[in-house]
Write a structure and sequence with these properties.
The chain is mostly helical and 86 residues long. It has a single domain, classed as DNA polymerase, domain 1. Helix content is 60%, strand content 0%.
């Protein structure tokens, strides 16, 4: 089982858009460690997506191209008061 580095996750959570930073940075700092291993892997994979895709999914509310991301997107939005509801 691969061990995920929380510091790396934090730095990958920092994006080029303030709105994404407001969602992802607190999530990585406050929630990531409490996720199941499968959810941590899913979050890591989500971070590999382009900023524009993350914007569309997290801020605009579009359906992600990969349905497996829905669970972690919903979790991010629930955990962040900024995100509101999907």
């Amino acid at each position: 089982m691969e061990k995920l580095n929380p510091r790396k996750i934090f730095w990958h959570s920092r994006r080029g858009m303030l709105e994404l930073d407001l969602l992802l940075v607190p999530f990585s700092q406050n929630i990531f460690a409490s996720l199941s291993y499968e959810e941590q892997l899913l979050y890591r994979d989500l971070l590999a997506e382009e900023d524009q895709n993350l914007w569309d999914w997290l801020v605009i509310g579009q359906e992600p191209s990969e349905l497996r991301f829905e669970k972690i997107i919903d979790r991010i939005l629930i955990e962040n008061s900024f995100g509101g509801q999907k």
